[in-house]
Sequence to fold (525 residues):
Amino acid sequence: MNLDQEIARRRTFGIISHPDAGKTTLTEKLLLFGGAIQKAGAVKSSKIKDHARSDWMEIEKQRGISVATSVMGFNYDGTRINLLDTPGHQDFAEDTYRTLTAVDSVIMVIDCVKGVESQTEKLMEVCRMRDTPVMCFINKLDREGRDPFDLLDEVEAKLAIRVRPLSWPIGMGKGFKGVYNLVDKSLYLFTPSKQTVEEGIAISDISSSTVDDLIGENNAKQLRADVELIEGVYPEFDVKQYLSGETAPVFFGSAVNNFGVRELLENFIDIAPAPIQRKTDTRVVKPEENKFSGFIFKIHANMDPKHRNRIAFLRVCSGKFERGNSYYHVRQNKAFRFSNATAFMAQDRETIDEAFPGDIVGIYDTGNLKIGDTLTEGEKMIYTGIPSFSPEIFKEVINKDAMKTKQLEKGLHQLMEEGVAQLFTYELGNRKVVGTVGALQFEVIQFRLKNEYNATVEFSSQNIHKACWISSRDPKKLHEFTESKTRHIARDKDDKLVFMAESKAWLQMVQDNFPDIEFHYTSEF
Ligand code: G4P
Fold:
């Protein structure tokens, strides 16, 4: 196969959902179809249940599990599918945001009983920043859920994306009869707890009496009315609008019953994008370019504290990655040889010799790589679109063991490179403040600093509302601003200037008073 064919047959995507909507169950069913696993129960949930909030050992265990399920590669009907896992727990949202930078499209799972939930809203915001194509799977139709039209309205209103149903449910809960596929015009009948996949029954004319025979008169009447309404209300499905992130095609099913999953997968393969072009700071790179390039979107620390090596996750963006070749590390301005690259298959990691755009390669690293790094065959360019977002919780790091200051610095530095949290160092007094999305990370950081670096820290809460990256067209004005607000100015890990705003109202006031300063909520602007 040549490079173009390898690219065309690849689909790299992530599943996003609010915890408990059915992401793990759907993942597992997809893997079963791909023959990547043999039986149900093989995929461990990467979610951390709420009761484990104070139990950080559980987090450590989950970290171990989540390496194995970080990327699940499998083949289906000649298509190479790379499914990137995203942590379910909201405290790890930053990790999820970064993983979403490495996918080409997304499947969003929504629980038909609960509708659109908060976590899905946040994740969709990230998808929208990059116009990522989204396909929607409305799950748990075997439960009494909300009216499907209401659900679709809610998706449109809360997620700011247009929807177009491509299948439609017949009944719900106990009365769930199956779905009508609006694309191939066939009925798929549901039998509770039957895991085998039924073939669709072609229905050329929905008004035919066969429909009444199959699903009963009342259901048939309702279905005809629903389909008429759908065709009247929703414009015809336009794949271009899906690919540009404007319209989400919607499927209905029940993951745990393996119902509707194959249709989802097959439609996904048909219309989801193959690896797409990506932006760098100098130009747009097309996947079919001959020269290899890619970027690191995730770093995973080794579980064994005695060995500090880590796994860096590289997304191949163009050309062919070959094991044993040396590649140019743009940030460090030197060449590295990666002889131990591994591919991620559903269950194991295996050494690979080559990888193509859309593939994720695992690289064992001893500290040379960090999130956002670009590797090329020599070209100086950096992939953009892997920003940090302003954290929500801020705490100052208090060193409890002055003898271990060096270890603490090193530990903090490495944990930040892994993306566990963000570190802000104040210009005044060198105070170090850690910012995170959730409370769990502080326990993780404290534990890992002690365990891996022998450093003892405590955290003291800070009254900070947001960290805003600041810039100005006029360097003099920027200087004046930082001089007048010295106590609130810090630097992020890349030495970028950050304004630590104490409250929303105060931030607004400062923004009004300094119109020449731009305030950004993400590190890339
Ligand atoms: P998540 O990864 O999005 O957090 O969700 P997960 O797949 O773990 O599913 C959450 C719960 O919802 C699980 O039940 C799962 O069995 C159930 N579920 C998934 N799909 C369906 C469906 O189509 N219908 C129904 N009725 N339930 C579904 P659990 O009790 O939390 O766990 P388990 O003991 O069943 O594994």
